Amino acid sequence: MRKACWISLITSTLLLGEEQVELYGTNIDTNETIATATGNPVALYQDQILSADELIYDRNGSIIEAKGSVNLFKAGQYHAISDYSKINLQDDTRYSTPYYAVDQFSGLWMSTSEAQGCQNEIDLSSGAVSGCDSTDPLWKIRFSSAEYDTESMWINLYNARLEVGDVPVFYLPYFGYPTDRTRRSGLLIPSFGWSSSEGFYYQQPIYFAPHNWWDLELRPQIRTDRGSGLYTDFRFVDTKSSEGSIRLGYFKEKIEYAQEYDLANQKHYGYDVHYRHRDPLREWFGVTLEGESGLYAEGSWMNDVDYLNLQQSDQTQNVTDNQVMSRINAYYSSEDNYLGAYLKHYQYLDQVSNDNTLQTLPTLHYHRYLETLLDDYLLFSGDATATHFYRPNGKRAVEGNFNIPLTLQTALFDDYIDVSYTLNAASKVIGFYANERANETGSVYEQGKYAQLDHTLSVGTTLVKSYESTTHVINPFASYTSAGSRYYDGYYETYKDSCDITGTYAGYPCEFYTLSAPSDTLSLGVNNYLFQNGNQFLVDRLSQNFEYDDQRSYYGELQNELEWEITEAISYYNQTAYNHDRDRITKEQNTLRYNDDIVTASVSHYYTDELRNSTPKYASYWTADAAYQYNSHYRVFGLLAYDYREDLLKRSEVGILYSQRCLDFGIRYVQNRRPILTNANVSDSVNDSYIFITIILKPIGGSEFNYKLTK
């Protein structure tokens, strides 16, 4: 019997080898050009494996017929099942009935009454597709016909009807989606919403990806009672070491809506630019210096804050700070030297014009890395910066800063005590140009020079004590800085008494004055570290400054920072500053976190009570969030953000998410306060309430619908 089976295998391989088809089976009968295999037969051709109750191969016609329990495996990813299949290898056509196929990677399956294919195109009759268990799918999409391209990995469904259980919930005359993760052009998942003030919201992203180094996304949107607009994102990878993106946006309000909310602008527009390059000198200019270079650019501009608010339907995700900073940073770093250039531009969204805002365009920076001499007893480094302060309206300036610290260090008493002495030499020069503003008439802007020489003596030690499973590390330190010589000339001499940064004077011409009065300072501190079985679980840092001069308080603020891993699930963080003169805590942050993989929760409080220009500035802000993973399917979550000083609920959210292998369904309620710019030229705000409903059909995708109430 073994001999007969072996002869059959040899014969079939020789018979079909010319067509690159191998036919195996317990019993193989041949009749001239036709071979029939039974007894667990298997056919191998190209990257496919075919099995059935019976396989018939016609060598003249290059046709394979499979009958009964047909299973086709392709490229280790796709598995197709049918009762009957016919494959013509010569013209690459296929026919199967009924047809069931599943993607082993994504778990997506499709079932139809029959399928006909030619080369990479497959026409499918009526059927259904789903990513859920095929025996009782939680959701499925039924269709009257479909087309599947195995080369582009794209499927088109016609008369698509989404059913949850057996209940129809949505209809589309056409629905197409990819069956892999290849970038391709087409329509992306839309966003829907409804607002009592803005009406129906619809955004339809359109995606273009003609090349592998760039893509373009257009996001037209309409808000039926408010207006319409377009946002677009252009993303690119121009070299192996760089990437970037450009966003442009425009939205036009309806006149009635703009008047009702007293909006400052009927049109909102702006742009965002991001770019990063990790080796510009070599790739752009062919410079092959030792070391590394880099370039980072982040730029934004908008005519008002609603450019941010309108980027998407979920306005709670937008960052709407009143200050927008744009910057460009470029650098070159070698083993010994660092060269940098930094440009910063500020835009304040609560102001109609930023012509009076000082910009740094640019700052040039040179740094000499730390050098050691005399067997590492002597250390020195150096910094030099030149900053150009520019604004369209008002005085402008160019300022130079120079700093050279020289440190002598050693260890005493068998390395128990570390001692160092630092001589720090620093200087400034500043020059002004351009005209003064009208309200600055009479002020003196003359060239200024400044120099200082300070001396610092530092003493510290690090002690380690081990117990059974705990290790304690303590690091006490003390340093005394003597304010040595000071030299003032010109601008710095004129305003050294009235423009001290610790004083009360505000406004011009002190906006260029960044010096503080000289002061001898004693700094004391101690750092404590606790380790359990080699893992750090507590850090405490305590410091106190004492200042010796006639202009400021003797006591600086007492500051403490604590990080404590109480258990594997519980952690606590605290930062506190205490002002002796005011006899009060001026800054405190407390955060308590819990995470045991079932319950996650945190509560945080931020508090400040500081003097700015002799005026107390008080803030108290609470945030809390929590989530409960009931089981592998259900998750409940929520958060709160409350401004205690303003007695204002900034944000609240509560929701539930149901998740399965093939479906995510969530609902959440959100309240959020967002800023707007009104005709009063002040920053106002609107309180929004949302109901979000999220449906994700895995692995096809999904969308989020929201209903918004605006007060």
**Could you tell me the number of beta strands?**
48
What's the N-to-C terminus distance? 86 Å
How many helical stretches?
Answer: 5
The helix-and-strand class reads mainly beta
Radius of gyration: 36 Å
The proportion of residues forming helix, as a percent range, comes to under 10%
Mean pLDDT: 86
How would you characterize the largest beta sheet?
A: 27 strands, mixed, barrel
Protein model, in words:
Among the domains are: 1-75, Lipopolysaccharide (LPS) transport protein A like domain (lipopolysaccharide transport protein A fold); 98-182, no CATH class. It has 5 helices and 48 strands. The strands form 2 sheets. The chain has a 27-stranded mixed beta barrel. It has a 10-stranded antiparallel beta barrel with strand order 8-9-12-13-16-17-15-14-11-10. It is elongated, with a radius of gyration of 36 Å.
